[in-house]
Give the backbone structure.
Amino acid sequence: MISYRLKKCEYQDIRPYSVGNDLRGPARRGPCIKEHYLLHFVTSGHGTLENKYGVYKIGPGDMFIIRKGETVTYESSNDDPWYYVYINLDGDIAKVFDTERSVYPTPKNFTTRFEKLLNDRVEEPSIFTALLYELIYNLFEKEDQSADSITAVKNYIRSNYTKRITAESVSVAFGFERSYLYRMFKKKYGLGVKEYIIQTRMEAAEHLLSLGITVRETAANVGYHDEFNFSKAFRKHFGYPPSTIKSRAR
């Protein structure tokens, strides 16, 4: 395990204090409060993070944030302990992390470069500051495009509702936390991703049934591989069974 403090940093925007890595067997930290922002970059294994916004499952490629002054608990998996590198920081720009979002996808090659600095025992804070500027640019340039990303999610659903997509698989495909995507999607469209998938499927199903397509074929054409589950979802959505529309179409 590597852990060390950096030389004193004179920058006000971003001030990295210490860096390190950690390979944890079954271990729990917290509840605890950190005096600085703490960024973790997980390269292998799994664990969980719990804060006031929720409980998050963490895995390889995830960056999770512990914000300055917040109470958190984080714990490595018993079966698949995580390995991560981390950095303590503060500064005005670090406040961009003061949002409800706690987990981000780590930008490509970031962790590899970070680990090289650790292994070389680099203590010059400006090197890490440059890396952090790049990280924040990559994360929040994408964040600035979130409105376009949410539109892309909607278009993706409309193009793929015939497949076995779920709210979870859509969030993974776009690199969003499911809870974060839910809030952003509902804010823009008035309903969550799961509800939108169901609505899209039901609208398409209603149209197909009105054309005289069988219930079994309709179910298969709107992403259901079980006629019973489709009929149950249809009745719940419209208040009547799909056979009602089928009979009207005769």
